[in-house]
From TrEMBL, chains A, B:
Residues that, per the record, bind Mg(2+): D229, K249, T253
EC number per UniProt: 3.7.1.2
Cofactor(s) essential for the protein: Ca(2+); Mg(2+)
Record keywords: Calcium, Hydrolase, Magnesium, Metal-binding, Phenylalanine catabolism, Tyrosine catabolism
Domain Fumarylacetoacetase-like C-terminal: 123-407
Name assigned to this protein: fumarylacetoacetase
Gene Ontology biological process: homogentisate catabolic process; L-phenylalanine catabolic process; L-tyrosine catabolic process
InterPro entries for this protein: Fumarylacetoacetase, Fumarylacetoacetase-like_C, Fumarylacetoacetase_C_sf, Fumarylacetoacetase_N, Fumarylacetoacetase_N_sf
Organism of provenance: Amaricoccus macauensis
Domain Fumarylacetoacetase N-terminal: 20-116
One Pfam family this sequence matches: FAA_hydrolase_N
Length: 426, 426
């Protein structure tokens, strides 16, 4: 049974942001500075103002004076719990504080959303088994599809924090070195095989020094976002051996604008998939640490109609976020407040569950059918890609808000990058 | 002809820190707080104090109020030049300011050195051709040694900024997943093949948005350090396919404590090696952008004598720092003040020029002979590894100071990572 808020639009089960959610973002309104806010129904609550006026008071605070949640994320988890409890109390139906709080509600429709936190470092994992199998099959055949280490290690690589952007940011098609199999030498060209990756993002709150257990890792996690790891497949194919993806993944990584807290998702824990090979002790889960969160991907051509091209679920991930984070610390690597971990592409078992166009079009060989008779193998200029996700509770759902971006054409080639310009410079 | 300073120990050609160098660090003395300093001869000049008292005044300043050089690194290059000019004037023989400045000199022997800047993100390249060829030969044979893309792309991967430490920091041998070829499944164990990588580190001053040319990239660079990219070869072998090195490289990356400015090294430019395949226009250099900087690596067993196990030179790098940085921006990846780029291991053509124990011992098959009749294949607990480097000018040399670290034993296995502990938790 859903809890009721005096913010009517939060009730009824159709909002992403009921009283059970209370996700954290950063917003601004026309002419105003960005500040911390909490989504409730069709509104953002200006919690920075509530803290400044003393309506919210937290041990060791203030935490919300900057337009980012990092100071709170670095605080003790008892402070995280205290804020959630206070917000729930302020917003519950019948709250004596309604008259004080209500003036600080801003319609979501009037708010511009910004990056909710400063990303310290960004790591991208590869924990979707169907994705790893599909991609491996395309490149190495089904017998050698899954790398030998895949069932033992949550494989990950370091990505580029500076390229993480908030939902709504335009994504400029990248230039890069590309080479088709029939070409002898690479060309410098805009990526022709630009793609999405449907992922779940984990945000580290408490830092670590030294190796941590899976249970400790789980407690370090502050919250989650949807994450689209935009990928230039043709750049990646040419560059990734032997040291992994680099420029193919550094154009942009888009996250949804609201940090959905770990507390809000606790009711949606589910076991990770059955182990096909026993895990080493340090990776074993003390309890179910996966999540049941429905996901979908929409593609909208410029001026066209959206088609849902994929439906998947976070529960497909073979390794939980806590397992990934624990593995990340094995060598002694310090983890910091604001670190962001991408899960890897979350594909499901069926064709309609695939989380990238690479898989959906099977490496460009099977065009994906869209509304209005259109088709796609990879992203075309003007396409809007949108990830959505929610956990369904009894009479309510915990939503993430949209994680969206439009791909715009590559920039013109600078003169110095052209054959004539470089000759002049030399 | 070397310029003379009234700081006598800076003159004579044997100091790493003559008047021509003026490298930037962060230091503290007993009981004091870390602050910005400049090395001159056997002293550190407390430039934070000189700025605070108005002896140094820079447009848009103050820049030196925090114990890190990032604020100055983010400033306009005219400010970089103004500071260098002012410091040169203050420290030159016959300076009228000697009486004002001299009280702010602290003997280097009494100073503790700290990280000179906050590392934003860390990227490691693979631009040493002899190294790439040696490693490729060991793993794939000499015919397939150099990856197909190597002569076209400055290959790089993202590393972990949180693990970058200053010279002198102890390095704890990491745990990780390892598997020998004769083993069916991996074990969790301390790395048995722990290694160094002799590298040159580049520090980004001015940030970028969008693609930049090689010439523009060069102008973004603030300075350089020596860099040891500690590497667990056995962890790397098992984890690195298909997405590259991860935990194998995240235990620690040690940098020398002084930022040697680009200005100080300008006299030591040298062409990068002859191209064996034409570069794409965006990577062509407008002028020689390599450096002639001699390098060496010393290994000192606990309580023993140091042996110089390798001598190399930065001029061996096939791609310059400016080429690496320009490539880093091709996809639109924003580069930030404080980004650190490792060059890749700098090996030379002969056995005695190899920049890692992996190469020196040829994958453990040819032990390296040390003083006192000792040998090494990889690092043993208690070993101190020290990188040194300098550019030799007429009557002076531009040195980096030592980049050193002692490897200490791995921590005891936590109970939760043991078979019995994990069983109890499940």
């Amino acid at each position: 049974m859903a809890a009721l808020s005096w913010v009517e639009s939060a009730n009824g089960g159709s909002s992403d942001f009921p009283l059970e959610n209370l996700p954290y973002g950063v917003f601004s309104t026309a002419g105003g500075e960005p500040r911390c806010g909490v989504a409730i129904g069709d509104f953002v609550l200006d919690v920075a103002a509530l803290e400044a006026t003393g309506v919210i008071g937290l041990d060791g605070g203030p935490y919300l004076t900057e337009p980012r949640w990092n100071p709170l994320m670095a605080a003790d988890p008892t402070v995280w719990a205290a804020l959630r409890e206070r917000l729930t109390s302020l917003l519950t139906e019948g709250s004596a504080d309604r008259a004080t709080v209500e003036p600080h509600l801003v319609p979501l429709a009037e708010a511009t959303l910004h990056m909710p936190f400063r990303v310290s470092e960004y790591t991208d994992f590869y924990a979707g088994k169907h994705h790893a199998f599909n991609v491996g099959t395309m490149y190495r055949g089904p017998e050698n599809a899954l790398p030998a280490n895949w069932l033992s290690i949550p494989i990950g690589y370091n990505g580029r924090a500076s390229s993480v952007v908030v939902s709504g940011t335009e994504v400029v098609r990248p230039w890069g070195q590309v080479k088709r199999p029939d070409e002898e030498l690479p060309r410098f060209a805009p990526a022709a095989r630009f793609d999405i990756e449907l992922e779940f993002g984990t945000i580290v709150g408490r830092p670590s020094k030294g190796m941590v257990s899976v249970a400790e890792a789980d407690e370090m996690i502050f919250g989650y976002v949807l994450l689209n790891d935009w990928s230039a497949r043709d750049i990646q194919t040419w560059e990734y051996q032997p040291l992994g993806p680099f420029q193919a993944k550094a154009t942009a990584t888009t996250i949804s604008p609201w940090i959905v807290t770990r507390a809000a998702l606790e009711a949606f824990r589910t076991p990770t998939p059955e182990r096909e090979r026993p895990l080493l002790p340090y990776l074993r889960e003390p309890r179910p640490l996966g999540y049941d969160i429905a996901l979908e991907v929409g593609l909208t051509p410029a001026g066209g109609t959206e088609t849902i091209i994929s439906r998947s679920n976070v529960r497909e991930l073979y390794y939980s976020a806590a397992q990934q984070l624990a593995h990340h610390t094995t060598c002694g690597c310090p983890m910091s407040t604001g670190d962001l971990l991408g899960s890897g592409t979350i594909s499901g078992p069926e064709k309609g569950n695939r989380g990238s166009l690479l898989e959906l079009s099977w490496n460009g060989k099977e065009p994906v059918e869209l509304a209005d008779g259109k088709t796609r193998t990879f992203i075309e200029d003007g396409d809007r890609l949108t990830l959505r996700g929610y956990a369904q509770g009894p009479g309510y759902r915990i939503g993430f808000g949209e994680c969206t971006g439009v791909v715009v054409p590559a920039i013109d080639l600078p003169e110095w990058a052209s054959e004539t310009g470089a000759a002049a410079a030399s």
